[in-house]
């Protein structure tokens, strides 16, 4: 069973930065896509950023220019560098992966809380 383990969440002041990491228990080459979603209280889960095996990362409009998705093939990790954070970024962030051989197989991490507050 594939596992995605997230780390790096926490409390940060507005304008600050955080880096989230997602470590996969298998080679990330088995995934067609990896990325991050987030869910704020009372809202639906939304895509933040995704990296497909072919192509450049895609970002939600709300995070473009502030967030960067980074992939480390050797460590089997996908990280999300978040800069200039604002209260609107407060949410639980989930790592997500789609299996290359069968895209119906979707994997999620357990979630990590990001709180932006002064």
Written description of the protein model:
The model has no long low-confidence stretch (mean pLDDT 94). Strands 2, 4, 5, 6, 9, 10 and 11 form a seven-stranded mixed beta sheet that branches. Strands 1-3-8-7 form a four-stranded antiparallel beta sheet, with no helix packed on it. It has no helices and eleven strands. It is globular, with a radius of gyration of 14 Å. It is mainly β and 118 residues long. The chain has strands at residues 4-7, 10-12, 18-24, 31-39, 46-52, 58-59, 67-72, 77-82, 91-99, 106-108, 112-116. 29% of the residues are buried.
Helix/strand/pairing category: mainly beta
**Distance from first to last alpha carbon:** 40 Å
Number of helices: 0
Order of helices and strands: EEEEEEEEEEE
What distinguishing features does this structure have?
118 residues; mainly beta; seven-stranded mixed beta sheet; four-stranded antiparallel beta sheet; 11 strands; 0% helix
Nutshell version of this structure?
By secondary structure, this protein is mainly β. It has strands at 4-7, 10-12, 18-24, 31-39, 46-52, 58-59, 67-72, 77-82, 91-99, 106-108, 112-116.
What order do the helices and strands come in, and which of them pair?
Elements: E1 4-7, E2 10-12, E3 18-24, E4 31-39, E5 46-52, E6 58-59, E7 67-72, E8 77-82, E9 91-99, E10 106-108, E11 112-116
Parallel strand pairs: 2-11
Antiparallel strand pairs: 1-3, 3-8, 4-5, 4-9, 5-6, 7-8, 9-10, 9-11
């Amino acid at each position: 069973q594939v596992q995605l383990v997230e780390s790096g969440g926490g409390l940060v002041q507005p304008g600050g930065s955080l880096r989230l990491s997602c470590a996969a228990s298998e080679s990330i080459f088995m995934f067609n896509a990896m990325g991050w979603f987030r869910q704020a209280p009372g809202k639906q889960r939304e895509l933040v950023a995704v990296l497909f095996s072919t192509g450049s990362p895609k970002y939600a409009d709300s995070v473009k220019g502030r967030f960067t998705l980074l992939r480390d093939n050797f460590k089997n990790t996908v990280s999300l560098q978040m800069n200039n954070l604002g209260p609107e970024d407060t949410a639980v962030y989930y790592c997500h992966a789609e299996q290359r051989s069968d895209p119906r197989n979707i994997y999620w991490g357990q979630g990590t809380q990001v709180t932006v507050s002064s």
